User: Fold these one by one.
Assistant:
Number 1:
Amino acid sequence: MVKITVIGGGTGLSVLLRGLKNIEDVALTAVVSVADDGGSSGTIREDLGMLPPGDIRSCLLALAGDETGMREILAYRFSEGRLEGQSVGNLILAAAADIYGNFERGIERISDFLKVKGKVIPVSEERMVLCAELENGSIVIGESQIPKVVRSEESHIADVFLESGGARISESARRAVMEADSIVIGPGSLYTSVVPNLLAPGMRDALSQSRAIKIYVANVMTQPGETDGMSLSKHVDTLFNYMDAGTLDHILINDKKLPEDDILKYTNGGAAQILASDSDREALRAHGVSIIEGGFIDMQRGYIKHDADAAAYVIRTLTRNHILGHD
């Protein structure tokens, strides 16, 4: 059984999990950021003093044995009244955490109910408050506020960090990293979904000590208010600010250029497709990272996503070769 641990958060992580769960003989674990403080998750986090359930819920649904049976109910958001904007799935996770004594145990019981293929683990059992320093010197507190302030002050992110006394990596997350055959980082919002996991004290050391191969699935588009104008190599340079040098072994890069008309709504919003340039490739090789380019992009009903099946196949092959000593 091949052990694959995926680290991230947001929509990108749940999309990739849908591809990985279809591969046979894989023991899959998702280590998920708990820095979210906006929307339905933020309300529950503040009202109940628990970890935000939103990204956890998305991963559980992605790995569910029968997504169609409960997807609509768990993804449903109330449209009026005092529960307006609240997600049924988030409320159920909050109830499970209360009934079974803690958040992780609640996730386990919901996983049993949904017949989840794999495990979903919060990166920390403690409150995680993400902060950012912008290039103009401003300090922003709270994950949901960072893109807003970046846009309003027209200043890029210089650094992100956890509020003083930041949450340590959970023992379950540390074990998932140490026992993995391969560790997949991303895709997802670079500063607000991926990097928060790397900031949890203990994660950096665990990644360095793990004998797993480490694979970064690069984003296919820049994100307004977060990675405006950032090249592919700049994304990787940012990761290396929060990981030990030489930690990454491989990077999956989409090389399929989409027609301008297909991505017009994205470019009008300030996003741009991320494609590797010759200088990107040179910089990545200088970091000792193996580059794997392919058609890892998918367009569904006008929305751009990763081709999860294509990425999962490559991840599975790299992992198997690593186990067999064919790196």
Number 2:
Amino acid sequence: MLIFGEDDFGVLQRGREIFREWEQELGGMDHETIDAGAANSGEALNALSRLREALNTLPFFGGGKAIWFKGCSFLGDDRTSASAAVTEGLADLAALLKDFKWGEVRLVITAGKTDKRKTFFKTLQKTGGVEEFSGWSSSDKDWVERGEMLARQAFKDLGKSPTDDALAQLVQSVGPLPRQLQMEVEKISLYVGGQPVVSAQDVAAVCIRNKQAQAFALAEALGDRDLPAALKILDEELWSMQFDRKKSEIGLLYGLITKVRMLLMAQELIRSGRLKVVHSYPSFKAQVERLNPEDFPRDRRFSPLGVNPFVLFKAMPQARNYGMGELVRAMELLLESNRRLVASGQEERMVLQQTLVEILSRPVGHTPSA
């Protein structure tokens, strides 16, 4: 069976559920979990080799055997997945699975993005079955609203009433993952017990922060102009890069550049009177919907109508932490950091730390300049 999709949490939970069911059903001690994450074709081929070995190794004491090929990262269309060696390895595995005498052997594969056009996927679809856990895309303009609607209804079903701030914080922490949102609602509801109203403080106390939310944390610290928090988060992000090859120093820098661009936009919207800082996201979204498209550039990168309203909502109060001149200077510093990271070969941690210190520091008694 193949469990796949962009909802990482849902895929993981479903894979674990199936594997544990099979463990209990089959009994014995010969079950195997194989880490199928791979950063290159060599690691992918090694994982496939281990899977073939597990399939062909009979349980030591007889009986059944469950195998979990966990977190397979080479079923999509990235460079590793598209390499000739991996493509051939998956084709060989597909042939093996098609003719395999399953008996008491069970196999569940969990994966993220998966190319449905490939022979391997079609083979599993015919022989073992597939389940897809699709998340919403963070590029979808309405994913925040859909998330809040889902969470509000889930709270209502459990007899709870969340505040607008609580919903906003929950969706920001979890991201565009519907299944995980539902599970977090259940956890928060258990935490508040008989309390009918769920507050933002309740969400903060128990809600997890997934990878997407963590990726925003550094930019949020910059928006809050909180230097100690920014340096702490930077250290955590740089440390985590040892274990997550999808992260990079350049990626962190681009996140900061995007945040400063958003702060500049927010400050101009406040100055021109087109938008006001409000505490309620629904009220803010109503303001955005009343904006005249003719007043803004057609390039959606530079228009408030082309960005996620929730991201702009978060930036509005933060824009007050800086003067316009400070934000322009921050953009210059970040672009210079980009040049230093790419061209100079300087130590990445030092470059990013120095840039954050220059942007976020301010003299005692300083007030933002206009």
Number 3:
Amino acid sequence: MKRRQTSKILTLLVITGLLSSCDKDSGSTFTVENPVNYEFLRNGSSTVSFDGQTTRISMATELTAAMTDFDSNLESLLEMYANQSASGDDVNPFAQASLNESTKSVKSKVAASADFFSTNTVEAAKIKADIESWITAQVNEVYPNRNELASEGKAGQIADGTSARYVNAKGLEYNQAVAKSLIGALMVDQICNNYLSTAVLDENQNQQENTDGITGEGNYTTMEHKWDEAYGYLFGKSTDTGNPLATLGDDEFLNKYLSRVNDDSDFNGIAEEIFEAFKLGRAAIVAGDYDLRDQQAEILKQKISEVIAIRAVFYLQCGSRALEADDLGGAFHDLSEGFGFVYSLRFTRKSDSNDSYFSRAEVDGFIDRLTAGNGFWDLDANILNEISEQIAEKFEFTVAQAAN
């Protein structure tokens, strides 16, 4: 884990002070003021804005909760996902009126990054359809059997301690598949493969306009706003968005699982590394230091990808232990979460590369192994350990470290 610790040291050196750096091409020297909190001002007013990201996190939260509300219907669930009759139409599926009035949607930003999917429309369409199909199957397969006991080849409910889990014929909880897959397909893809991409940050005349301090409708340059939108997919629902580490776990998606990973002694400090990279990268944009900005983007891609991989291994190992203890309800719940994190591996991003850590074929291979035959009913520790090892070997952590 040397690389992770080294990047932490380099980042912490500039938490509260001034950093001087030199552009390798022009020889220009920059002084970057890295604030304590993620707070940036122009003419006394904030330049930070990520309302769209906060809205989509709220939409996804209501969607995944509604999937286990058996009073929900398919029309309302699909509307929560796609928001096709947005802004004032008769279909108002959200409890929050502001979400019903919004023209944003979850589906429109799923597998929609510039780097991975702008020219890969076939795969993008399949990913959007996968999530829609799990929503549909929850209503068509699980709802009718919610009062029946699940068994091999039969959807229904299964006990997990004092809780009831509602699974399909293979033991999968569709609501968990949707929630955890959205972490990758929405949050991670938009952060790592879209808003932190130079194709987006430097699009058109963004660099020159940022250097010149040209702002548009908001009190921010386009580049500042793009970076903030990446930040919003992780910290947009934080109680204090300027100081989000004080209350990690303020949403049910990437923020929550960054908190879980950070709580593991093997990975403690990763949340601070990510926050500092976001903050220092934004400060570099203000100073016009685009090399330093890009260095922070690479740190973010690596660290956020690690979070997904660590949680994928964690849940596969939890599921393995529960299966060995003959706790099928607990195992199926863990494996359902693991399924979603494995699906999310496709959206991870290697630093200094245009590639994901995992190809479509690799992720499909993992999913096929998890769902072959009777799915979770047929799984054993050997299969889960093999998949876990294949995930961990691409990173600088071990299965044992992630399994804590």
Number 4:
Amino acid sequence: MKREAKNTMLALQPIPKTLVSCRDRDGRNNALVVGFCANVSLSPAMVMVGIVPSRYSHHMVKESGCFVVNLPAKGYEKEYGFLGSKSGRDGDKFAAMNIAWEDARYVDAPILSDCPVHIECKVVESIMPGTHELFIGKVEAVYANEEYLDEKGNILWDQIDLL
């Protein structure tokens, strides 16, 4: 017999562990843990990330109009925890944790080099339905470490040990 659950706040589980990286207009990089992330369109390919307006990265995505979704693998727990618990307002999180990064190819944001998958996005729309502003990004490029791609360029998701 099914019973009604009382806690409906995070009704959809599991939430993917994602890191969104961005850059402000002065060239400062930042990354944060984002719990709300999903595919929203197949054609054109689009993803959505939800960021609370009080978060330091919010203004960066709003002003730059772009972001990168990085999917971390096991072994990146320490960095993930730090990026999710510290604010970029308090200092350079990349320098503090020696986060390896490189410039994205199609958007003005950093890619977290040690993550096996990256999705470069340009914001096409945003909405504020509640606590989080939902940034809908057109996927400009998706990258994966070579060992996780088949001969046709498909990501072998079952071979990646994501967080």
